[in-house]
Amino acid sequence: MATHKLLLLPGDGIGPEVMGEVQRLIDWLNAQGIAKFETEHGLVGGSAYDAHKVSISEGDMAKAIAADAVIFGAVGGPKWDSVPYEVRPEAGLLRLRKDLELFANLRPAVCYPALADASSLKREAVEGLDIMIVRELTGGVYFGEPKTITDIGNGQKRAIDTQVYDTYEIERIGRVAFELARKRRNKVTSMEKRNVMKSGVLWNEVMTQVHAREYQDVTLEHQLADSGGMNLVKSPKQFDVIVTDNLFGDMLSDIAAMLTGSLGMLPSASLGKVDAKTKKRRSLFEPVHGSAPDIAGKGLANPIAMISSFGMALRYSFDMGDLADKVDAAIAAVLASGLRTADIKSDGTTPASTTQMGEAILKEL
Amino acid sequence: MATHKLLLLPGDGIGPEVMGEVQRLIDWLNAQGIAKFETEHGLVGGSAYDAHKVSISEGDMAKAIAADAVIFGAVGGPKWDSVPYEVRPEAGLLRLRKDLELFANLRPAVCYPALADASSLKREAVEGLDIMIVRELTGGVYFGEPKTITDIGNGQKRAIDTQVYDTYEIERIGRVAFELARKRRNKVTSMEKRNVMKSGVLWNEVMTQVHAREYQDVTLEHQLADSGGMNLVKSPKQFDVIVTDNLFGDMLSDIAAMLTGSLGMLPSASLGKVDAKTKKRRSLFEPVHGSAPDIAGKGLANPIAMISSFGMALRYSFDMGDLADKVDAAIAAVLASGLRTADIKSDGTTPASTTQMGEAILKEL
Ligand SMILES: CC(C)[C@H](C(=O)O)[C@@H](O)C(=O)O
Ligand SMILES: CC(C)[C@H](C(=O)O)[C@@H](O)C(=O)O
Q1: What b/e string do you get for B159-174 counting C-beta neighbours within 10 Å, with b at 16 or more?
Q2: Is A303 labelled a binding residue?
Q3: N or C: which end of chain B has fewer CB within 10 A?
Q4: Handedness of CA A329, A334, A340, A346 (dihedral sign)
Q5: Does the N-terminal peptide bond of residue B146 adopt cis geometry, omega within 30 degrees of 0?
Q6: HSE-up of B149 (CA within 13 Å, CB side)?
Q7: Residue A166's Cα: distance from chain center in Å?
Q8: Distance in angstroms (rounded) separating the CA atoms of residues A259 and B256
Q9: Mean pLDDT value across chain A
């Protein structure tokens, strides 16, 4: 059996608590001889700042590069609101994405039937919802230069951010979207603002070309990002795969997640390119929810998004799709049994702490 | 009685139809001696391109500058999807905003009680919703330079857009938001992505300063634009005034509009600065909905957003708040009577064409 090297980066807030439940699952898989994981641990975000005055240390970056997959909790919190911009908690996550070249962020927005009523949307609008948002993750306004604040005299400052996209960046994220669509409902919706942004013009043009050259069997549709956002709220079930840039993807995937009513349940995968020699690709897995400092340390956090992110690692990095299916089924079974953490509780359900939820999922497995 | 000069720019798609109902209202106000409007007419968007191969002619720009207010319909449609970028329909609207220096875009998102069920959100989430989104309209990534697509060799192109904000631009839009909040529920939520964008850092800093210096009586809150978008979907009633940049404002105001279930009902006002001498300010009023080419020319369009935008002109440009209130009341009364255009019809209501709706509102007045 192959040994897989994992780097666990719990981060801040509820990160360590939810990561604890993934650790429990890994220990069990190892003990049962189902898989062989070697885990290392590191600091990122505010916790790295507190220890080393950086958002991630060089040592932990080296471990991330050496690992077969990084499992990431969450970063940030009011405690670090006034640390210098370069070492703010989010910088650690952004550096991981950039240095590991994790250009493809997969964010499934799935409405768990047991939780459809938790959505602010009407049940009929979200029941059965299953969208995959494919967000470009290493380009756009997140990393473009110049990115500066300068003094321009007269008490005035000028802030500049730069959105940059090259053809190859759009091509490769397009391919990820089309490949995923082939295994789903065969439809891709590309979103940009071509009526205002030159990067939107190029995005639209390249998506159209990739589609015409390589994926004519998939349906490609274009929507402006603002009307796309509206359609997401109005009738989300019209979508299968949505592909969009880094900043629009940030907004739209969060909105899609909220629609499902299952924010504490949603995982994400960030993938790099496949290495021609090793056939491996760099990857990082993190829940869509943040560090939730208000409930941290109280055993209230929902570990499902974190466990489900580990499930995505099994599927996308270690080719253990069957085991991933079992993890998903265990989560669904526990939900069906009525067990709920505080964020998803409703009348007639049984309250569970972070640990109780983690243990119940393990027991199902 | 003062004479007010209006420039009507119906634009494309359903623009001319809905503008027709504003014209009817203006004619009636003039005939009754309630007000004195002088109207001029011009072309913008695709209709200007068809006539002159530009998105707005210099002559019409001159009329816009000379007018006391511009009343704008909608632009765009598939017919002009492949015209050159510089003369695409939207360019006309963007030039009007920029050259008239209409830096403040006010987009009320109000849920009409009679239409709460048209929302994809649950009634309790949106009933009574009344948000004002204040969007910066002449800065940011819409107008920043460089804004280019260049050939970088090897079959690769590079697209660049630039987001630029100076201190004064953030200050003046902040003041608009705080002033509006004072007349409402006294709360402003500022949204940006300071964890990723330098313009977000400056935006946050300047809002905080303006608040501390001039508006301590108003509550100021900051949200990241992605979680702000989530909160808008989850519990929109937590907001009073939202102030944000041009691109986030584009996305967030559309999403807020869709929440209300009343997209065809929502107006917007774009305001410039007050001239020190004349005490007047440039202004443009347009519905939030677009040109809806699919239903254009069929008498199906809902004229309420357009009429209500004219109501905002009465309020914000001509100091006729009482008359504006009467227009709003007439719209509410017609809705309460059960009359509905196709976009808002439901069981037990009476269908109306664009013209029938416009006439009914006039009759109420
Ligand atoms: C934490 C932050 C930098 C990050 C982002 O903006 O990408 C987060 O919002 C996300 O969506 O993963
Ligand atoms: C038509 C388009 C240029 C415009 C914008 O992006 O500002 C529209 O979406 C709006 O919100 O007014």
Answers
A1: bbbbbbbbbebbbebb
A2: no
A3: N
A4: positive
A5: yes
A6: 18
A7: 23
A8: 14
A9: 96
From B162, B108, B110, select the one nearest B139 (Cα to Cα). Answer: B162
- Between CA A101 and CA A272 the distance in angstroms is 5
pLDDT band at B274 (very low <50, low <70, confident <90, very high): confident
Instruction: Tell me the pLDDT of chain B averaged across its residues.
Output: 96
Nearest chain B residue to A147 by CA distance is B198
Q: What is the pLDDT of residue A114?
A: 82
User: Where on the phi/psi map is residue A242: left (φ > 0), alpha (ψ -120 to 50), or beta?
Assistant: beta
Where in chain B are all domains bearing CATH 3.40.718.10? Answer: 1-108+265-365, 130-259
| Residue A113: predicted pLDDT | 82
Answer yes or no: is pLDDT of B85 > 90.
yes
pTM of the shown model: 0.96
Q: Under CATH, what is the fold of the domain B1-108+265-365? A: Isopropylmalate Dehydrogenase (3.40.718)
Angle at A173 between CA B160 and CA A3, to 5 degrees: 130
Minimum-distance ligand 2 atom for the alpha carbon of B250: 11
Q: What is the CA radius of gyration of chain B?
A: 20
CA distance A122 to chain B (A): 5
| Whole-number pLDDT of residue B116 | 86
| Chain B residues with beta carbon closer than 8 angstroms to that of A122 | 120-122
Q: In what order do the strands lie in the sheet with A144-153?
A: A144-153, A156-166, B156-166, B144-153
What CATH number does the domain located at A130-259 have? 3.40.718.10
Q: What is the pLDDT of residues B181-240, one digit of tens each?
A: 999 999 999 999 999 999 999 999 999 999 999 999 999 999 999 999 999 999 999 999
Residue A264 has pLDDT above 90, yes or no: no
**Residue B284's beta-bridge partner residues?**
B70, B270
Q: Choose the residue to mutate in B75, B93, B133, B134 for probing ligand 2, maximizing ligand atoms within 8 Å of C-beta.
A: B93
Closest by Cβ to A163, choosing from B125, B161, B233? B161
Task: Report whether the peptide linkage leading into residue A146 is cis, meaning its omega lies within 30 degrees of zero.
Answer: yes
Chain A contact set for B263 (CB, 8 A): 230
Span A104-117, mean pLDDT? 91
